[in-house]
Amino acid sequence: MLSVLGMLFDGIAYGMLLFLMSVGLSVTLGMMNFVNLAHCSFAMLGGYVTVTLMNDAGWPFFATLPIAFVAAAAASVVLERVFFRRFYHAGELPQCLLTIGIVFVSIAAAAYIYGTDQQPVQLPDYLQGSLHLMGLDFAVYRLVLIAIALAITVLLVVTVEATRFGAKVRAAVNNQRMARGLGIDVDTLFAVTFALGSGLAGLGGALAIAMLGLDPSFALTYLIYVLIVVAVGGLGSIAGSFAAAMLLGVADLAGKYYIPAFGSILIYVVMLAMIMVRPTGLFGRR
Amino acid sequence: MTTQTISGPHAVLQAQARWRAAEIAFWLATLLPFVLAPDYLVLASQVAIAALFVLSLDLILGFSGIISLGHAAYFGVGAYTAGLVSVHGWGEPLSGLVIAGIASGIWGYVTSFIIARFRHLALIMITLGLGLLLQEAANAASWLTGGFDGLQGIHTWPLFGKIDFDLYGYTAYSYALAVLFVVFVAARRIIHSPFGLALRGIRENGARMPAIGASTHSHIRTIYTIAAVIAGLAGALLSQTTETVSLEALGFQRSADVLVMLILGGAGRLYGGLIGAVVYMVARDQFSGLNPQFWYFWIGLLLIGVVMFLPNGILGGLAFAAERLKAAARKRPPVSAP
Lengths: 286, 338
Known about the structure:
The structure holds two protein chains of two kinds.
Chain A: H1 2-32, H2 39-57, H3 61-82, H4 92-114, E1 130-133, E2 136-139, H5 140-162, H6 164-174, H7 176-181, H8 186-212, H9 218-233, H10 238-258, H11 263-277
Antiparallel strand pairs in A: 1-2
Chain B: H1 8-17, H2 21-29, H3 32-36, H4 41-62, H5 72-87, H6 93-115, H7 120-140, H8 142-145, H9 170-191, H10 194-204, H11 216-242, H12 252-265, H13 270-286, H14 292-309, H15 313-331
Helix pairs in contact in B: 4-9, 4-11, 4-12, 4-13, 5-6, 5-11, 6-11, 9-11, 10-11, 12-13, 12-15, 13-15
């Protein structure tokens, strides 16, 4: 029983990371139908920014997080302006190829600069150790992680549900052409949303180092998980992404704990079954 | 269009299906490595195998518009089947090839029921998921596949019981080239048949085809199964000529590689994939001193460049240039012509 709770806790922390890394992709996919397979490259960038600032410049961990966010957002804006915007109406195949190309370049660049090893990261003392509660040990870092992710989720939901910007985003996700017809500048809106989403991915990548590790293959390994979250959660749905990320985090860890031989297969089977039964995702409307 | 003699659909298809001089020249050129570069026959056999694999992807992606990010699954099934048949005591290459083709065809037929139902993002996810699922399954079933270490102990018997597979790749290239040519002729017939025309219709407008009475789903299932068989043959050729199979045969990297070759050469053109395979494999051989990590840097740049500037690949670009030249020649008054 206790081990089940501990597993659930770890799964939720893992799910929070997946949520941060995928929510941006879900919203931008819902808005522009742009298949961005390079989304996890932004997460990886955030991770490397944090590692560099901490290990080479001696910054404290928390101070690096906003920089990771900004760096990923800025990089995504540049790529969006230079490459992505030319391909909004080009169909999935060119979009896939372009972004796979970017993934390859990002992986090679990371390997060139940092080598292919796992990046070491020394968390501050107050984030290490664990909290003893009700006969269970909770790793402090994972508690903090969950708290940060929950705060961001609340912020996101409030932004999308209660602000003018959020209303525009929802309009553009629901019906892009109609939104344009009503005078909403969807292109600019998309660029901003894209930057925010990539920034969140960067933040997720930075937070992920201590839990998932960081090496150049990060951009490809976790892309699959992010895509699963997006596909299962439904395009453009924050609540859906959240639910899917939690589900995936817990299911993935449970699979690896209890049936190690087939744990990694289980995830793909669940994903395929999910897409077949509900192609629009858990909360998808289209 | 320009000639008045063509009338009716049969005549159109027949006119398309006629062998052109350039095609005959291309196939004659595939024999050149025997004479000009006998040291590179091993590479040439790898190129022929890659070309076969690209041809398979071209049938579904280029001609039918089915995007796949997991095509290596069928390559891998073929490779592992041929390898397993050999490991369990039957190294005869031709029958091994047939068995591998059947195995990958069965897997292709089974999965085609899923593939035919989806398009767009869902299709990308499904092909990716199926590919990864198979790779993980092969990794987990290490008692059968050897897992991470790959399949050990493959031995391919001499071709027709007489011709040994030599170190220099003489037999390997002849064998792979012969299979490639036979499959190519078959694929060419498929493309220039009414069925091939229906496939292009599905690619151009999948919603309208049922309206003119074409059963889209069954067409997609058929071509997908055929493509799976061809991919399986390519995989089998690889494991028979190199006598090794590893999980890499099923990996995403291989699916991405074959996509790059097709896009580079030009999708939806029979020779596009072949040209792409030649360029890609020769380039990779030239840069083989490079760490694979950095090789993918250039591949990434190449992908970005091709989709930005050469959306129809090398052959598409050449065709475009030829059109422009012709148009310029027509416009020019005959007096000023040199």
